[in-house]
Specification:
zinc ion binding; metal-binding; nucleus; disordered C terminus; 55% helix; mainly alpha; three-stranded mixed beta sheet; Potassium Channel Kv1.1, Chain A
Length: 193
């Protein structure tokens, strides 16, 4: 009698693995590469794991996989024109799948994601930028609607909006100009004749 295969899958294992790799990096354990970044004279070194960088960034994957055997394994990578704070945020994101940055840094994070070819960070930045844009558009729409309401109230003080019955009266054939009929109604009737 043949046994049916079953799937053993952990939902928490990926998060646990990420958390453990992050802790190892923070403690400097098992790190096999140092990434040096420099921007306008500010420089910093970051210890990391090649496997994590290569798995999350096509840029690093290409760098590590294209190492020449004669040179030996690369233990240092130098990045210029990358701000220290941005690379620190990038590392936090690839090791934890989240990072908190100021709104004005989202565009810079998108740029570093594109430079380092990190698809997950690019997608996350695009989603956040879309949410921010939608929020701004909603605020503008609400502001515009409130401005229109204020302008209408200022133009017609003490006048209440017309009810449906009054609107129907304007369209009736016996409506007289000045009594609920619009100024456009007589012109429209003249064109019909």
């Amino acid at each position: 009698m043949e046994s049916t295969p079953v799937l053993l899958e952990s939902k928490s294992s990926p998060l646990r693995l990420l958390n453990e790799m992050h802790q190892l990096r923070l403690l400097g354990h098992l790190c096999d590469v140092t990434v040096s970044v420099e921007y306008q004279g500010v420089r910093a070194d970051f210890a990391a794991h090649k496997a994590v960088l290569a798995a999350t960034s096509k840029f690093f994957k290409e760098v590590f996989l294209n190492e020449k055997a004669a040179d030996g394994p690369r233990s240092n990578v130098f990045l210029n024109e990358v701000q220290v704070a941005d690379f620190a945020s990038f590392l936090e994101f690839v090791y934890t799948a989240k990072v908190e940055v100021e709104e004005d840094r989202v565009q810079r994070m998108l740029e570093i994601a594109e430079k380092l070819k990190c698809l997950d960070l690019s997608e996350t930045c695009f989603q956040l930028k879309r949410q921010m844009l939608e929020s701004v558009l909603l605020e503008l729409q609400n502001f515009s609607e409130s401005q229109n309401s204020e302008e209408e109230s200022a133009a017609h003080p003490g006048v209440l909006p017309e009810s449906k019955a009054e609107g129907d009266e304007r369209d009736s054939p016996g409506a007289r100009p000045g009594h609920g009929a619009s100024a456009e109604a007589p012109a429209a009737k003249a064109k019909e004749k």
